[in-house]
Amino acid sequence: MELTSGAGDAEKVTAFLTDNALPLFGRLDGDTFDKYMEAGKGLVWSLFPNPEGGADALEAMHRPVMGEVAKNIRGRYFVTYTDTEKFKEAIDNMLSVTEFPAIAIQKKAGDKKKFVYTGEMTAQKISAFIDDVDAGRVSPRLKSEQPPAPSEDPVKVVVGTSLEKDVFTPDRDVLLEVYAPWCGHCKKLEPEYIKLAKKIKKEELTDLVTIAKMDGTANDSPADAIDWTGFPSIFFIKAGTREPITYDGERTAKGLWKYIKKSSSKAQEIRERMERRKGSSKRGEEL
Predict the structure, then answer these.
(1) How many domains does the chain have?
(2) pTM of the complete model
(3) Quick one: where's region Disordered (predicted)?
(4) Residues 28 and 88 in one domain
(5) What b-and-e string marks burial along 31-66, b requiring 16 or more CB atoms within 10 Å of the CB?
(6) pLDDT confidence of residue 13
(7) How far is 273 from 278, CA to CA, in rounded Å?
């Protein structure tokens, strides 16, 4: 491919090189994955059942349709194909797709939000779906566990589909830990986090502050403001706001409790209640 105009324009040259750094319809596997992530553009995953002949046959079979799609969206997305048998588990984990054919769209490669198309596999239909994604007319497919049964546990369990309702509340602050079951730091934090939640419950402050957790490996966030790249990630969301504050202080019950008392939108009410309780009992003692 040649650059036929704008050769003297540095921005145009850079854009041209970026748009053509990877194939029009390219293989996505362990060797190329990082290249697509680093390119910083949107990603279209073409997920088709494997034919006899493997990946080479897959590419030849679907290039006519997906190549046309790629031309329509050049500059915004890279279009890929992958071995849906070899990478079946990874596709499920990353995209929540288990049945093929399907087209998965990430507005930016690696984005937790993905948009999945399973309709008629024609260039016109797929291109129209991508245009609808860009226009905000399609809702993302979110990975989520089933909402838990009502519980008296001091730490509230949040899942992807309940996050909006549970975390962005008009009358309660929420401390949310996003954890991974295999994470050593998360396991170390767990008893401290439970201790904090029990403190909130003991002081009868659960109507003001919710202590919550969500498995970040099994659930996606529907809110752009709540995003994580490591575990544990702790967010503090004040009542009536949609602007999470990332907590990076001491990961102990005492440190978290001190932060809540200082930063809470209900700080004055918490202090007043604590003073009233101290006047009648010793239950308001510090952790």
Answers:
(1) 2
(2) 0.74
(3) 262-287
(4) yes
(5) ebbeebeebebbbbbbbbebeeeebeebbeebbebb
(6) 47
(7) 9
